[in-house]
Structures
1.
Amino acid sequence: MTVRHIPDPEELEALRQRYRLERERRARSDGARQYRSTDAEFGYYAADPYTEPAEREAVRDTVDVAVVGGGFGGILAGARLRQRGVERIRIVEQGGDFGGTWYWNRYPGVHCDIESHVYLPMLDETSHVPEWKYSPGEDIRRHAVRIARKFSLGPDALFSTTVTSLAWDEAAEAWTVTTDRGDTFRATYVVTATGTLSEPKLPGIPGIEDFAGHTFHTSRWDYAYTGGTPEGGMTGLAGKRVGVVGTGATGVQVIPMLAEDAGHVHVFQRTPSTVDVRANRRTTARDVGADREGWARERRENYLRIVSGEPEERDLVADGWTRSAVLLEKLLPSFRRGGDRKAFEAAYEVADAAKMNELRARVERSVTDPGTAEKLKPWYRYACKRPAFSDAYYQAFNRSDVTLVDTADTHGIERVTAQGVVVGGTTYELDCLIFATGFSVGTSGILSGKLPVHGRGGVQLLDRWGREGPRTLHGFTSNGFPNLIQMGTLQNASSVNFTHILDEQAVHAAALIAAAEAMGAVIEPSRADEDAWIAALAEDAPDHEWFHAECTPGYYNREGRGRPNGPFTYPHGAVAFHELLGRWREESMGRILRARASAADGGGS
Ligand code: NDP
C-alpha cells in the first residue's frame, strides 16, 4: 500500500534542515576532481572484455556519411539516412559491435528502467514487440543489432575502432576521418553520436592500484572471473568476499544479483538512491495495443508529453516516471510558462516531500534491521539523483550475507589496501572489488577534446568554442564546420527517454543531408543563425539554480557546485523543441544550405 502523508509547514522546515545537513555531510571541496578516468595505468578498467578486435586492413576510401558512434544515436542516424536513400554510410564504433551503452553494460541484473515499449526505437519499423515491460539489457542490445541489420549498417561499419581526428578538406569539400586502426577515409558528411555517459570513471581513492584481489568496473563485467550471465548463476563467486562501491542506478540493479551468488557482499554506500516500485512483468502485444499501425510512435509521444510536463489526457505507460513527472521536470510547465513562481515552488515542495516520505516509508517497510533501514533512507529532493526502481534491492539487505557500510561521514571510502577497503578505520577484507561508480560526464567525443575537429581554415572546434562558448544552430551545426552534424544534448533537447530524443535528432540529420544532396549544397549555418539560437536559449532559460544548489552532490549538479552539468538545453522542453524543428525544416532549412564551390565552378563531384 502506498503511504502518502502530506507534510505540514513544521515538517517541511525540519526536512529542509535535514536535507541541508545531509548535503553538507557529503559535499567535498574537490567536486568532480575526486574522480579518476579509466585511462593510462587504469586503462584496464575500460578495456573491452567482450570482443577481441578483429585483424583487418586499414580503409582508405570514400563514403557519403561517416557516423561516429554505434550506439542507438549512430544506429538511428544510419537508419534514417537509409530511409532517405543514402548509400555509403560508415559507422565507426569503439566497441566490438553495435549497442553503445548496451554493448558495454552487461552486468548481472542489467535492465532498462524506462518502459521498453517507449525506450526501444523503431518498433513500428521492425515489427518488434518487447516481451517485458522493462527489458533485460541483452534484449535491448539485440534490438540495436536488429535495427542495424534491417538497414544494412554492418557491412561498412568499423568496430573496435576509435576516430582520432576529423578535418575538413576545403578543396574536396569533404571530411578526412582518421582512426586509431590506421584508417584514413573521406566522408562528405560526418554525424557525431558519441553519447553522454560512456567513459567509466573510478573514485580517486588512494591505493586502488594496491588491491591484490580481483577488480573491475560494472560496465566491463568480468564473466570469466564471476561465471554466469546477466541473468545470474555466478558460480565463480561462491564463497568469495565481494565489495561493491556505488549505489546509483547500476548498484541498485547489480547488488541483489551479487547477494544471490557471492559468499558475502559488502555494499559501500555514500548516498542512498531513491528506490521506487519496479513491478516488471511480461507484456503481450495486446497489452500495449501493438495490433494497430503506429502504436509505438503514439505511445512514445504520449510518454514524452507527460514527462515533459505537457498536458495529456491519457497516461499509456503509467509507471513511476509518469506518475512523478511533475517532480522530474522541477519547474515545468507552470514556471516555464510564466506562472506564479512562489505558489508553484510551495506546491512543488509539498508534493516533493510527500513523495520522498513515501519512499522513506518503503525502506522502513522492506528492511528488517532498523539501523540498516535508517542508513538506506534518502534525504534529498526527488530527482536530485537519478531515480532508481527495484523490488529486490531493499530485500537484499535482510540477508545475513549482505552488509551495508555507510561511508557518508568519511566522504566515501577512505583507502584501498592490498587486502580490501578501509572505512572509518576498519578494513573490510575482500577477494573481489567491483566499481559501480558511473561514468564521466561530457567526456566522450568532441566535447572531451579527445576527438579533435578541424574545420574551415584548420580552426579547431573547441578552440573556437573556448573563446566564445559553444556556438551552434539547434545544437546540430556550427559555422566554419560544414557538413558536420552533432547529436547530443548540447543546445538541443533532453528527456529521461533519451532514445526518443536521439531518434528525432537522427530524423533531422537525415533531412538536412538529403536536402543538401538534392541541392548540391553544403550544410553550414551563418554566425547570425548561431547568435539567434543562443539568444533564444538564454532568453527563456529557466532558473533551476535553486534546485541544484539545494541538492545532495552528484553528477546532476556538478558534484554539489550548484549548477546543472554542461551547457544548457532548449528551455521549453523536448515536445516544443521537436515542433520547432519540424517547422524549421518546412520553412527555413534552405537558409543553411549553401551551393558547393565545385557546383559554383561548374565542376562535378
Ligand atoms: P552513478 O554515477 O549514478 O553512481 C555512482 C555511485 O558511486 C554513487 O552511488 C556514488 O555515490 C558512488 N561513489 C562514487 N565515488 C565514491 C566513493 N569515493 N566512495 C563511495 N561511493 C562512491 O553511476 P551508475 O552507473 O549507477 O549510473 C549512471 C547512469 O547510468 C545513471 O544515472 C543512468 O542515467 C544510467 N543508468 C540507467 C539505467 C537504466 O535502467 N536506464 C541503469 C543503470 C544506469 P554518491 O551518490 O555519493 O556520489
Note: Residues 9-45+202-278+346-435 form a domain with the FAD/NAD(P)-binding domain fold (CATH 3.50.50.60).
2.
Amino acid sequence: MTPVLAKIVFVVMAVAWYAIRLPHARRAGRTPVTRSARGTRERVLLAISLTGLGIVPFLYVATGLPRMAERSFEPWLAGLGVALALAALVVFRLTHKALGRNWSVSLDVREGHKLIESGIYGRVRHPMYTAFWLWALAQALLLPNWVAGLSGLVGFGTLYGFRIEQEERLMVETFGDEYRDYSRRTARLIPWIY
Ligand code: SAH
C-alpha cells in the first residue's frame, strides 16, 4: 500500500458509496413527506457533515492541502482502512435496501412510513450511522493528513451527536410504543454493546 494507492482507493470507494445511495435516494424522493423535523439546525449539521466527509478530503486528494497537516504514511493503517471502508459499504448497502422508501437524508416521515425492525435493523436501530462511523474511521486511516483524515470523524460526529436524540424523538412521536419496544430490544450502533 502506498499513499497514492490509498487516495485512489478512497475516491473509488466514495464513488461506490454514492452509487449505492443514488437509486434509493431517487425512489425515496418520489414518496411525499408527511411529517418532518428538518430546520435550520438540521441544515447546518448536514453542511458540517458534508464538509468533513466530502469537501475537505476531496480537496486534500486533489491538491494535497493542507500540507502542514501531513503525517507519515503507515501501510498497515491504510490496509485496515481499506477493510473498514469495505465493511462500511456492505453495511451501507444493506441499510439502504432495508429502509427503502423510508429513507431520508434528514429527519422526515414519509407517506406510508413503516418502522423497519428486522434484518440489519433487528439488533441495531441506527445501522446506517454505524456505516458512516466505519466510513469516517476508514477516511482517518487511509488519508495521511491530520486535517483531511480526521475531518470525517469530526463532521459526522457533530451530525450524529446533535441529531440522534431528535431522530429517536421523531420516531417515538410517529410510532409510539412500537418504537419504545423496538428501542428496548436494540442497541444504537453496535449490537449488544452500544
Ligand atoms: N438512523 C437510521 C436511519 C437513517 S436515515 C440508521 O442509521 O439506520 C434517516 C431517516 O430514517 C429518518 O428520516 C427517519 O424517519 C428514518 N428512520 C430511522 N429509523 C427508522 C426505522 N427503524 N424504520 C424506518 N425508518 C426509520
Note: Residues 95, 99, 102-104, 107-109, 115-116, 121, 125-129, 167, 171 surround S-adenosyl-L-homocysteine (CB under 6 Å).
